[in-house]
Specification:
alpha/beta, 5-stranded mixed β-sheet, 5 strands
């Protein structure tokens, strides 16, 4: 993770696990092997946002500028997000957004279920400094 310059175009995109056991095993092989799916879902409530990767090599078709970003994960599956109080889910997504701000992201994308839980990203956007865009998981018609 290299520091960003003020002129650099940067973004972060928040994702979440779909198959929690498989996805945890990719990032944390030992934990994915020894913990059951139920245990992973339980412990995910106490797990911080997860840095997945840096994204480089993107060039904007409209401006020609190079863009850099990060994939971050909220450690909740969609069923976990549905089962928890919305405020708890908001706090985890906002915490992940704050991590994006710390990395230097200038815009935030809410992917898949993080964009539709609660009020479609409105509360998350109100609690962060960087602009966010909620997409995925819903029919925007």
């Amino acid at each position: 993770m290299t520091p960003t310059s003020p002129a650099e175009d940067t973004f972060a995109f928040i994702i979440h696990p779909i198959d929690i056991k498989r996805d945890v095993q990719r990032k944390y092989p030992f934990l994915g092997r020894v913990l059951s799916e139920g245990q992973i879902n339980f412990f995910s409530r106490f797990w911080p946002p997860v840095y997945i990767s840096e994204v480089t090599g993107i060039t904007s078709a409209s401006t020609g500028r190079t863009v850099r970003g990060w994939l971050l994960s909220v450690p909740y599956t969609p069923p976990t997000m549905i089962s928890l109080p919305p405020e708890e889910v908001y706090r985890k997504i906002v915490s992940t957004g704050l991590k994006a701000e710390g990395l230097g992201a200038k815009i935030l994308g809410l992917g898949a279920f993080t964009s539709v839980v609660g009020d479609g990203g409105i509360t998350v956007a109100q609690r962060l400094k960087l602009p966010s865009a909620a997409r995925g998981g819903r029919d925007d018609g």
